[in-house]
Amino acid sequence: MANERTFLAWVRTGIALVGFGFVIAKFTLFLELIKGVKSSGHSQMFGVSMIALGALVIVYGLVIYVLNERDLKVGRYKSRYTINSIFAGLILIIAVLLALLII
Predict the structure, then answer these.
(1) In this predicted structure, what is the pLDDT of residue 71?
(2) What is the DSSP letter of 1?
(3) Which of 44, 63, 73, 90 sees the fewest Cβ atoms within 10 Å?
(4) Residue 41 gets which letter from DSSP?
(5) Residue 15 in 3-state DSSP?
(6) What backbone phi and psi angles, to 5 degrees, belong to 59?
(7) Distance in angstroms (rounded) separating the CA atoms of residues 41 and 29
(8) What is 46-90 written as a DSSP string?
(9) d(CA 15, CA 101)
């Protein structure tokens, strides 16, 4: 059951990222309506990036869930240290690249 709760946490995190990305992407439209100011479009790019990141998190959670379920069915558990480290590094690289685009 812990495996299912962990999977649902990944899905919840992914949904939050998708929702946040949608808000960021639509924020430009909101500013244009309120202030009449045309923006550069960076907001939309960041929003789409967050939506893609949310989808990536959900897919990653599903992969880890399936691998853990398979291991638990045969009565063993294998640490996912390498794949977790790679995923964390990938997310960190994406975050740094997006931060550099803001500057």
Answers:
(1) 92
(2) -
(3) 73
(4) S
(5) helix
(6) -65, -45
(7) 10
(8) HHHHHHHHHHHHHHHHHHHHHHHHHHHHTT-----HHHHHHHHHH
(9) 24
The CA-atom distances, in angstroms, between 5 and each of 10, 12, 25, 44, 72 are 9, 10, 30, 32, 15
Q: Is 6 exposed, middle or buried (0-12, 13-18, 19+ CB in 10 A)?
A: middle
Give 49-90 pLDDT, tens digit per residue: 889 999 999 999 999 999 999 998 999 888 888 999 999 999
Q: Classify the phi-psi angles of 75: left when phi > 0, otherwise alpha if psi is within -120 to 50, otherwise beta.
A: left
**What is the CB neighbour count within 10 angstroms for residue 95?**
12
Question: What's this model's pTM, rounded to 2 decimal places?
Answer: 0.79
Using 50, 70 and 90 to split pLDDT, how confident is the model at 46? confident
Q: With CA atoms as reference, report the closest residue to 53 among 9, 6, 93.
A: 93
